[in-house]
Amino acid sequence: MGVKHYQAGDHPTGYIGLRVTVMVDGDYKQKYLNTRHCAYQDDRCPAFRRLKLEADLQNATWLTESAWSQYQRSVTSNHSTTKPCRGTGVHGLLLSLFLDRRDNWQARFLVNDPEGLTEEVTFFDLGYTDAWHAAVDRWARLNSILAEDVDRVRANMPPPTQFRDLRRQMNSEGYDIPVSALGPVFREGRGELAAARLLKSKIPAKSAKPTPDGDLQEEMAQWFDSQQTTG
User: Fold this and answer.
1) Is 28 helix (H, G, I), strand (E, B) or coil?
2) pLDDT grade, residue 190 (50/70/90)?
3) pTM here?
């Protein structure tokens, strides 16, 4: 890939000149610039120098297109190697359940960069939303993400229930992860439900009216309660 100069005898067809080759989003691009007519096959010849600059410019243009295509793919899709239930819709930002040093299962967001550096954000001291924002900020810093993409990804937070799905998936893969590992994930939601229930309890019965949000909160509360008794 890049710019290759074929001099006399280098190419099986007898071609003399420059060839530019770059892979752009799976598409193999190439361009030939014949230099047979040049007085010299180096920078002593102005015609060769011009063609060499043209080849370098084409190479740089295609490399830029390739880099931009890779970047767009990285901020709009899961990596091809992402296992079920782990993905967040971008490369390098994953959901994870792991055994800590005390052999207790914990939940976290896992952040990777192109060089293999890994950072994690757990729920020990952060609520779910703050943990997600912290993970996105680290992902952006490690991967040089543009501001508009950072804002979009921050706003597209995966639901906490994806950790529930991840637990079920990993258990189907042979792990034995207890439901208690999900406790910190849903701590923020439980707090919101508790506050909503307290507020509801202070509203006079005659003025209380069922609302879609209220129904949803009650369904969530029932799900939380069920998670304490089911594996």
Assistant:
1) strand
2) low
3) 0.75
